[in-house]
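Risk register update: the risk of archive-format incompatibility is retired. Evidence:
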Amino acid sequence: MDFKDEIKLFGDRVEKLKDQIQTEEATKNAFIMPFIKALGYDVFNPFEVMPEFVADIGIKKGEKVDYAIMKDGEPCILVECKHWGEGLDPHNSQLFRYFHTTPAKFGLLSNGIVYRFYSDLVEPNKMDEKPFFEFNVTDIKDNQVEELKKFHKSYFDVGSIQNTASELKYMNELKVLINAEFQNPSEGFVRHFAKQIYNGVLTSRLMEQFSGLTKKSIQQYINDLITERLKSALKKENEEQKTVEEEPANDQPDAKDARIETTEAELEGFMIVKTIMRQKVKSNRIVYRDAQSYFAILLDDNNRKTICRLYLNGSKKYIGIFDELKKETKNEITSLDDIFNFTEPLHKTITFYDGEKGTLLN
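Archived output:
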């Protein structure tokens, strides 16, 4: 098993077990130690992983860090742990105090779900206030796995990590700022674009108008990017679906089926719904069945588990959403991008079907 698969499986395990973990000590045993082990270290060898590592602070003696990952007899990563249900924001000061008393160049603060890596990028031997690398192990991205891999025992190199740590730190902070601007554009952000398309004086009323337009434009642009990516996968998906649903060779094809034509718009709508559902279920569980009057998207290829229906062949377009009683409500949409507006009710529909099974979706 390669490192990426191991981390992904570990994240799945954390998600399933977390509600059973009641204490900080249990969090260490169930989550933190297996995580350190996944990084290639022998958690039962004190020459590699030292539990309760003593980090004396001034006149205070006997101060201990939960774990120290060792290299050449010296700590290289200090690990401070909290219960998985605790937020990490109030606790980085504790790790901050320990950091400058040891030769370690990295600090790790974690509750077993969120992992924050710190270094001394701003001032030597003084831990930065903000982490340069952070991820949620239950939802870790492939690019984050690649960054985490640098901390694996087989690849660990202080210089190599520090060379990219600064870039990671600033990229993370920029992403936070960009997200904030996208969600609620600031006056400066709005003005920057408005001045390039409007030659007159930007009054308060105009700024308010451009603020709304800027936010809508950003959302539309993101939806367009997603749609383009879906289209790039559409041909392959369509071919695979046709293979699965290929009719048996008959001399006379079924007359009713011959009248059904699956359109590109329907397949694109299917890909959008599939993208939304991948946050809840595995993509291979989402399938479609086309009919003359509607395009049905199902869970587990089961007619009794209709996720939604798309009505795209008339002058007006609709998406049909189902409630817990399997009652359908049709909602008009002006474009396929509007399907993204129904993410929450679509997720709720999946939850209703999951309740019927009484098992986890994954």
